[in-house]
């Protein structure tokens, strides 16, 4: 069980790396577009489509699994905090199970949509160019898939009391993350 | 059950789930999915789940959110913010409660590069609180001031709340930003007055320190503020000089911050990556809630519950004053429990039509709304800014003590809201001037 | 039967009011058998409309097919031919009424491929409105062809980007919500937008010059209905919905003209130079269009394998001759509705259409 946790944790780490790269690329790409447009009258073609359909989609949906591992998803604790420990555990199992169900639904819907977009070869128009965007639809089933696995694993370790292999250590800055 | 009944049941379920510690985003998505299923059948429910998350997220305008977050995180981790506080500290040295006042001005300065109030409190908390403790400031005053000063971060542009509001209400983000400037400065001023009054009433709260600061020291301290000033200048100069749009400002600002940090020698690869990673996590946590709220909007629209509630509010509040009082009370109540962005996304579908119908300026309302939402950041039981400060001070100060320290400022916040409502020109003048 | 209609225009805007008129008409014509609830923006945004109507989140909508290049190559190619209305024989303030008629007639009565591609999205095509022609709205003066060199022009779609590149300007992509600020702060020098958006998006508050006659072309506003919804209606109701849709496409097309007129009226008081573009620019534009017509056909052939480009251009040209004649001097939505119904919608076989 512990090893499964370590494995999921390494998947989360890889996702985190991909997302981090997206953040950095987004900054560089937009800046380059602005510089090109203002100083050289040569904007980078396709910036808007690439930023919206690739960087945004990948960074959000790849990172929701990572946020699940770090327990960074925002919830409201004050009601449950007033209850005894055992009841609190009950609530966190309930919330974990619900997370698994809801995100599984999101994953299935995202997968269905990705298949449709792949079959039609979805594109977007920017300027006189066409940019393929169907690939980006796959970030949703992939990212939500990771989130489902991590949430399910946490429910199991909570119920069985087995040692978790997830890396839940809150980074120093996570408090900034709410 | 009628359609409206289904909608209201959905809302009740939502509140119950959130209270049961289900992550807000999950609760929103789950209730919307289930609600659409009951209301319109499985096909529509699945369709909305496939459609909305992608379409909502793949937004060019929303891309400014991670970029402004990145800008703030870079500035904090490379200590670009430190000089600002130091300068304020030295200039305020002679005033009673000088350090507390300095932390307010420091926050207002950091607010100009940070998009959220939490980042603002966290950054200033780590810089200013140890300093105040060292000078024997009362812990309640020290922590309360920084917790509350962080809320300026969402008023003074850039501001993530204002960007989201602009997108949803379809009004100019530049205008919103300009409107936020005066509200933010007014708030800072109000907080300074609170500090002055408190220290006047009880001088022991903030022992007077040696006030013999020379002009020379003051000038030297000012010099250290250049990194942050340069970034601010770059952002606002570029915005008004036609170099880039508000959406692009975050990315360019973050890039500028990297350059400045390289020049000051504080930029390291690990700090850069930490900032990017924090940006990633925060963006995901925020946007999953936004996606959920967007789904809920469709559910509320189709069920008719949104209309039902908003016309209910309109019919009870038969005068503008009553209506505004009602809105203030609703947001103070919601703000006790919810974080501001979730609260805003949750309520705007219901509140905006009401505001629109009563003929108020959407720009003015956006600023007042931000102010109200930010009050929620400091009210118990869920006060995010207070929790941030708590994590900075550890076991030194209890959460309850910080909430007590905040209470004084809360009263001032209510006064500020009343002022902004009574004199909309305070907000609207600057955007009109810049037209 | 209670249907939902998703509008992508903001609440209280003029097009949204037309949608509400349409909903009333549907109810009235069908004697209350079919009712329609309109959701302005709260249900689906324009970017979400196609999948939304496909899956039945809304029953009907204004489906801006230009947002979905891969899904609607035929319809999009046809609407790019709206550039033809800038040619001397078709140009004029009412040209959008003629183009809306021409494209709707072609798609509903003559274009098998179009019907197939709409059906593949689980939808039925029910006519298309059209915006007014696109004109240059600038913060700097443009007095001759040479002035276009290096000007940053916001381009809303492929046609306008291609045009800007050809004339030596720099096409800038920008969301329409940012364009006002972009013009105000000088991020762009001009926007190529229709004369109604001049008012609707507030460009009138910041631009100093508006040049009619180029780059031209119009944005097409097709209306579609979910296929199952359509086929759940009785033939009788289908016929009445078609009547209402003739009114809808007339009203939307006309409301753009009216808003364009309002902008033209207000412009002089706001110190805006609202004029025809210089003769050499208009001439250059017409030369561009006569070449671009063939370019469109070859672009769609290369990208989507469409072989029908040249044939469609000819057909639309012929239909434009007819419709320019029919709509000459038309004085309002009601007269247009009658034209569209008599010439197009009444000729649709409700028993087989969209099955
Ligand atoms: Na800020
Ligand atoms: Na609170």
UniProtKB/TrEMBL annotation, chain A:
Description of how the protein assembles with itself and partners: The complex comprises the extracytoplasmic solute receptor protein and the two transmembrane proteins.
Bilayer topology: Multi-pass membrane protein
MF terms in GO: transmembrane transporter activity
Record keywords: Cell inner membrane, Cell membrane, Membrane, Plasmid, Transmembrane, Transmembrane helix, Transport
Family, similarity comment: Belongs to the TRAP transporter small permease family.
Cellular component GO terms, alphabetical: plasma membrane
Intracellular or extracellular location(s): Cell inner membrane
Function: Part of the tripartite ATP-independent periplasmic (TRAP) transport system.
InterPro entries documented for this protein: DctQ (IPR055348), TRAP_DctQ (IPR007387)
Transmembrane segments: 12-32, 44-66, 87-109, 137-156
GO term, biological process aspect, one: C4-dicarboxylate transport
Keyword Membrane: yes
Pfam families to which the protein is assigned, alphabetical: DctQ
Domain Tripartite ATP-independent periplasmic transporters DctQ component: start-end pairs: 26-160
Chief localization: membrane
Protein name: TRAP transporter small permease protein
Automatic annotation (TrEMBL), chain B:
Localization, UniProt: Cell inner membrane
GO molecular function list: transmembrane transporter activity
Transmembrane segments: 12-39, 59-76, 88-105, 141-165, 177-199, 225-244, 250-269, 281-301, 321-338, 345-367, 406-430
Ranges where the TRAP C4-dicarboxylate transport system permease DctM subunit domain occurs: 11-425
Alphabetical keyword list: Cell inner membrane, Cell membrane, Membrane, Plasmid, Transmembrane, Transmembrane helix, Transport
GO cellular component, one term: plasma membrane
Membrane topology according to the record: Multi-pass membrane protein
Coiled coil residues, start to end: none
Predominant location: membrane
Domain of life: Bacteria
Function (record text): Part of the tripartite ATP-independent periplasmic (TRAP) transport system.
Subunit (UniProt): The complex comprises the extracytoplasmic solute receptor protein and the two transmembrane proteins.
NCBIfam families: dctM
UniProt family annotation: Belongs to the TRAP transporter large permease family.
Identification of the protein by name: TRAP transporter large permease protein
């Amino acid at each position: 069980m512990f090893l499964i946790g370590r494995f999921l944790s390494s998947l989360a780490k890889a996702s985190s790396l991909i997302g981090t790269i997206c953040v950095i690329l987004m900054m560089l790409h937009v800046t380059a577009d602005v510089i090109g447009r203002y100083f050289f009258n040569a904007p980078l073609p396709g910036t808007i489509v690439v930023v919206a359909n690739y960087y945004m989609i990948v960074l959000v949906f790849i990172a929701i699994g990572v946020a699940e591992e770090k327990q960074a998803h925002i919830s409201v604790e004050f009601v449950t905090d007033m209850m005894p420990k055992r009841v609190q555990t009950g609530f966190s199992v309930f919330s974990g199970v619900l997370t698994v169900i809801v995100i599984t639904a999101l994953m299935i819907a995202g997968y269905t949509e990705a298949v449709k977009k792949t079959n039609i070869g979805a594109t977007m128009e920017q300027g006189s160019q066409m940019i393929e965007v169907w690939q980006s639809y796959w970030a949703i089933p992939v990212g939500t898939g990771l989130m489902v696995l991590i949430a399910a694993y946490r429910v199991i370790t909570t119920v069985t009391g087995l040692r978790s292999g997830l890396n839940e250590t809150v980074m120093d800055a996570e408090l900034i993350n709410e | 059950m009628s359609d409206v009944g289904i909608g209201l049941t959905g809302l009740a379920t939502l509140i119950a789930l959130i209270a049961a510690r289900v992550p807000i985003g999950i609760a929103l998505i789950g209730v919307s999915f289930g609600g659409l299923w009951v209301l319109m059948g499985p096909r529509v429910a699945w369709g909305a789940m496939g459609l909305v998350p992608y379409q909502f997220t793949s937004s060019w305008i929303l891309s400014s959110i991670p970029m402004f977050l990145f800008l703030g995180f870079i500035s904090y981790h490379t200590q670009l913010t430190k000089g600002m506080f130091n300068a304020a500290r030295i200039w305020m040295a002679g005033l009673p409660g000088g350090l507390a006042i300095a932390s307010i001005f420091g926050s207002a300065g950091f607010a100009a590069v940070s998009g959220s109030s939490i980042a603002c409190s966290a950054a200033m908390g780590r810089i200013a609180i140890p300093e105040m403790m060292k000078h024997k400031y009362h812990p309640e005053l020290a922590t309360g001031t920084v917790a509350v000063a962080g809320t300026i971060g969402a008023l003074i542009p850039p501001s993530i709340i204002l960007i989201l509001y602009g997108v949803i209400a379809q009004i100019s983000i530049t205008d919103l930003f300009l409107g936020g400037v005066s509200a933010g400065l007014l708030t800072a001023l109000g907080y300074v007055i609170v500090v002055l009054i408190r220290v006047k009433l009880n001088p022991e709260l903030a022992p007077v320190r040696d006030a013999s600061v020379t002009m020379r020291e003051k000038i030297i301290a000012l010099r250290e503020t250049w990194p942050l000033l340069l970034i601010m200048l770059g952002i606002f100069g570029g915005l008004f000089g036609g170099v880039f749009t508000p959406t692009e400002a975050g990315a360019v600002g973050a890039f500028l911050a990297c350059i400045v940090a390289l020049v000051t020698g504080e930029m390291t690869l690990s700090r850069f990556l930490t900032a990017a990673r924090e940006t990633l996590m925060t963006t995901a946590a925020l946007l999953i809630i936004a996606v959920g709220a967007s789904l809920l909007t469709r559910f509320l629209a189709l069920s008719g519950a949104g209309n039902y509630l908003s016309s209910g509010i309109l019919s009870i509040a038969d005068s503008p004053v009553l209506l505004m009082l009602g809105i203030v009370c609703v947001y103070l109540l919601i703000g006790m429990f919810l974080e501001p962005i979730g609260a805003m996304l949750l309520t705007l579908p219901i509140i905006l039509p009401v505001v629109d119908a009563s003929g108020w300026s959407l720009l003015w309302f956006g600023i007042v709304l931000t102010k109200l939402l930010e009050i929620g950041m400091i009210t118990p039981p869920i006060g995010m800014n207070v929790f941030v400060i708590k994590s900075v001070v550890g076991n030194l100060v209890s959460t309850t003590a910080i909430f007590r320290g905040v209470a004084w400022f809360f009263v001032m916040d209510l006064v500020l809201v009343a002022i902004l409502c009574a004199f909309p020109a305070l907000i609207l003048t600057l955007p009109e001037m810049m037209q | 039967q209670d249907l939902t209609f998703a509008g992508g225009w903001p609440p209280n805007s003029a097009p949204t009011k037309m949608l509400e008129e349409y909903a009333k008409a549907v109810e009235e014509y069908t004697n209350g058998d079919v009712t329609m609830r309109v959701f302005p923006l709260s249900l689906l945004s324009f970017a979400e409309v196609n999948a939304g109507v496909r899956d039945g989140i809304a029953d009907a909508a204004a489906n801006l097919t230009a947002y979905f290049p891969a899904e609607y190559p035929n319809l999009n190619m046809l609407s790019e031919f709206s550039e033809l209305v800038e040619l001397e024989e078709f140009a004029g303030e009412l040209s959008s009424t003629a183009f809306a008629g021409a494209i709707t007639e072609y798609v509903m009565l003559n274009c098998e491929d179009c019907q197939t591609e709409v059906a593949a999205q689980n939808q039925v095509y029910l006519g298309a409105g059209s915006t007014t022609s696109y004109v240059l709205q600038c913060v700097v003066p443009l007095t001759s062809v040479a002035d276009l060199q290096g000007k940053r022009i916001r381009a809303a779609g492929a046609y306008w980007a291609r045009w800007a590149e050809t004339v030596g300007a720099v096409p800038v992509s920008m969301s329409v919500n940012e364009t006002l600020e972009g013009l105000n702060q000088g991020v762009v020098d001009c926007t190529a937008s229709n004369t109604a958006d001049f008012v609707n998006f507030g460009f009138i508050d910041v631009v100093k010059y508006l040049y009619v006659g180029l780059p031209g072309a119009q944005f097409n506003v097709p209306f579609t209905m979910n296929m199952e919804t359509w086929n759940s209606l009785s033939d009788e109701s289908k016929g009445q919905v078609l009547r209402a849709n003739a009114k809808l496409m007339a009203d939307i097309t006309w409301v753009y003209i009216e808003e364009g007129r309002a902008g033209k009226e207000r412009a002089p008081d706001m110190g805006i130079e609202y004029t025809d573009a210089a003769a050499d620019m208009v001439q250059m534009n017409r030369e561009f269009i006569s070449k671009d017509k063939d370019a469109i056909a070859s672009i769609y052939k290369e990208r989507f394998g469409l072989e029908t480009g040249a044939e469609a251009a000819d057909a639309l040209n012929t239909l434009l001759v007819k419709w320019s004649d029919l709509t000459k001097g038309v004085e309002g939505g009601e007269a247009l509705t009658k034209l569209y119904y008599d010439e197009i919608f009444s000729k649709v076989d409700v028993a087989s259409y969209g099955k």
